[in-house]
Amino acid sequence: MQRITILGATGSIGVSTLDVLARHPDKYQVLALSAHARVEELAEQCAQFRPARAVVGSADAATRLSALLRARGLDHIQVEHGEAALCSIASSAEVDTVMAAIVGAAGLAPTLAAARAGKKILLANKEALVMSGQLFMDAVHQHGATLLPIDSEHNAIFQSLPQAYARQPGAAGVAKILLTASGGPFLNRAVETLEHVTPDEACKHPNWSMGRKISVDSATMMNKGLEVIEAHWLFGAPASLIEVVIHPQSVIHSMVSYVDGSVIAELGNPDMRTPIANALAFPERIESGVAQLDLTSIGTLQFYKPDFARFPCLALAFESLEAGGTAPALLNAANEVAVQAFLERRIGFRDIDRVIARVMHENAHHAASSIEAVMDCDARARAAAQAIVAGLAR
Ligand code: NDP
Ligand code: MG
């Protein structure tokens, strides 16, 4: 039995994870679940999966969850709240595996706690790795944690690399890591109309069903930028080895091109239960509930070069990776603030890249010498981004 904590259980990845786990009650036991504010959904999950502990974001949410659990006769579930409780369910001696599926910087502390406790980490929360890159990877190695990528592209790359050389692309004969991108909902929309698109239009992804933050990131292609940085840290690959390829069908989830001319890819239907099942069972395989890929019904696979002028966020992400240190943390924090402001209709869609560019160019980045330095940079970038948003607000 693998004993599992799911951080962010009520989100898109959390729900897909529970769907896979429910298919294999003989293999996995849910020990702890977390949500932020959606306590009704968490109470439903608690009723189905009977964890020992449930963590929410505030004392008020904890009170409401306790009442819901009591009404269901589930008083034995320990209800807690706050960051220390998240870190505790991520590092508890009773837990083997942690699904890190909180969205944004809020996931860093608990995911790092899982790394320091030497857990098997299924990493969906790319923002944590983007912010803390080297520090996070050092913690993984120092404490003997196992890091398995959930992001579909990185899971595909992981499956396409020889395991013996998982973090030495040079030694493995890798010529390029080809990171595929759907291009999101605005791939072919007239650029001048992007100024006025709505949050609902931005969240209408052509292939994937996801949380709202990552959906906006896909529309700006910041998601792909964050994924370039994520691939850099996960696979020890310099930016020059990583190429973004637009592939609107999202059937090929990414590829590795080798010096002998071979290209190895992972293909499948666009459904996150595949990478989740892959990481849960690795190195074995389990059923995920995803239908087998029917290539003849798809017929055509297309590929294009990305347009950096249409998607300035992608260029900003490459720039932050080249700059190094806390520059990716600046980028990430500014992006989180700008995306939230866009979702709340306080700024326009194209203001997102303007806010990020200004935060990056008006604030110094430093060596990422400690988690405290990273969090300090994150806080500074958030304050700077909020001030710019206030100036732009419509
Ligand atoms: P969702 O917005 O659907 O879910 C986020 C989860 O995190 C929810 O459980 C939410 O709780 C919780 N949460 C939100 N804010 C906080 C906070 N401040 N503190 C603690 N918990 C919080 O996101 P997704 O599932 O789409 O994405 C999760 C992560 O996975 C992101 O980092 C994303 O980039 C990554 N990812 C997602 C993919 C997808 O297909 N969705 C694909 C690849 C990567 P509540 O429900 O109570 O608000
Ligand atoms: Mg992805």
TrEMBL record:
Domain 1-deoxy-D-xylulose 5-phosphate reductoisomerase N-terminal: 4-133
Record's keyword terms, sorted: Isoprene biosynthesis, Magnesium, Manganese, Metal-binding, NADP, Oxidoreductase
Binding site for 1-deoxy-D-xylulose 5-phosphate: K126, S152, E153, S182, H205, S218, N223, K224, E227
Binding positions (Mn(2+)): D151, E153, E227
Database matches in InterPro entries: DXP_reductoisomerase, DXP_reductoisomerase_C, DXP_reductoisomerase_N, DXPR_C, DXPR_C_sf, NAD(P)-bd_dom_sf
Catalytic activity: 2-C-methyl-D-erythritol 4-phosphate + NADP(+) = 1-deoxy-D-xylulose 5-phosphate + NADPH + H(+)
Residues reported to bind NADPH: T10, G11, S12, I13, N125, E127, G211
EC number per UniProt: 1.1.1.267
Protein name: 1-deoxy-D-xylulose 5-phosphate reductoisomerase
Lineage of the species this protein comes from: Bacteria, Pseudomonadati, Pseudomonadota, Betaproteobacteria, Burkholderiales
Gene: dxr
